[in-house]
Structures are given as C-alpha cells and as structure tokens.
UniProtKB/TrEMBL annotation:
InterPro entries listed in its UniProt record: Glutaredoxin, GRX_PICOT-like, Monothiol_GRX, Monothiol_GRX-rel, Thioredoxin-like_sf
Pfam family, one: Glutaredoxin
Similarity field: Belongs to the glutaredoxin family. Monothiol subfamily.
Assigned keywords, A-Z: 2Fe-2S, Iron, Iron-sulfur, Metal-binding, Redox-active center
Domain (Glutaredoxin): residue spans on this chain: 17-81
Alphabetical list of PROSITE patterns matching this protein: GLUTAREDOXIN_2
UniProt xrefs under NCBIfam families: Grx4 family monothiol glutaredoxin
The protein's name: Glutaredoxin
Organism of origin: Altererythrobacter arenosus
Tree of life domain: Bacteria
Length: 110
C-alpha cells in the first residue's frame, strides 16, 4: 500500500465520519463541498474534514482510493458513501440520517 493510501486509510479509520472536500467547513471552496457541509451540519453529526486543496497527494489519492472521480467524498464508519449528489439524494429521502443513526455516529457538540 502506498504512503498516500495508508494516510487515507488512517484518516478514514480514525474517524466515524470523514468528508474529503475542497476548503474547510467554515470556508468551502466549491459549491458541492458547501452543500456537503450543509447536509452534515443539518444532520447534526460530528465529522472530520480533509481539505484536498492543501495536499495534492490526498487530492489525487482519494480519487483512486474510492474509485470515484470527484470531490467531495463522504465516508461513514470506513465505508464510502458518495459525493454531494448522492448525499443530497440520501438526505432528501431520509436515508442519510437513518444510516448515521444506525451507525451510531456521534452527534456534533452544540
């Protein structure tokens, strides 16, 4: 396993919910990342974010790691969920909140 893959695996393994995104939750750098942050914030869960613009190895590596060509990418309990479109579809159908509840993901601190 390459160094970048082991770094990605470690990040995903150490956190219940990880969002690989462009920018940060406070300052997203694209509309898709902004939408993904808004969805997670609305769900009220605690999550780790990784700004792929700060690390080109991660930016390219995460695409190969998940076999998914776009960013943002959401992982819950080590499983790849999808990008912002899939997150939005799942959120609107109530499936994302249900999955987060079933996985007993920690709630965000108020």
């Amino acid at each position: 396993m390459s160094d970048v893959n082991s770094r990605i695996s470690s990040i995903i393994g150490d956190n219940d919910v990880v969002l690989f995104m462009k920018g940060t939750p406070l300052f997203p750098q694209c509309g898709f990342s902004s939408r993904a942050v808004a969805i997670l914030d609305h769900c009220g869960v605690s999550y780790e974010s990784v700004d792929v613009l700060q690390d080109m190895e991660i930016r390219q590596g995460i695409k190969a790691f998940s076999d998914w060509p776009t960013i943002p990418q959401l992982y819950v309990k080590g499983e790849f969920v999808g990008g912002s479109d899939i997150m939005m579809e799942m959120f609107e159908a109530g499936e994302l909140q249900q999955m987060l509840d079933e996985q007993q993901v920690a709630k965000a601190e108020s």
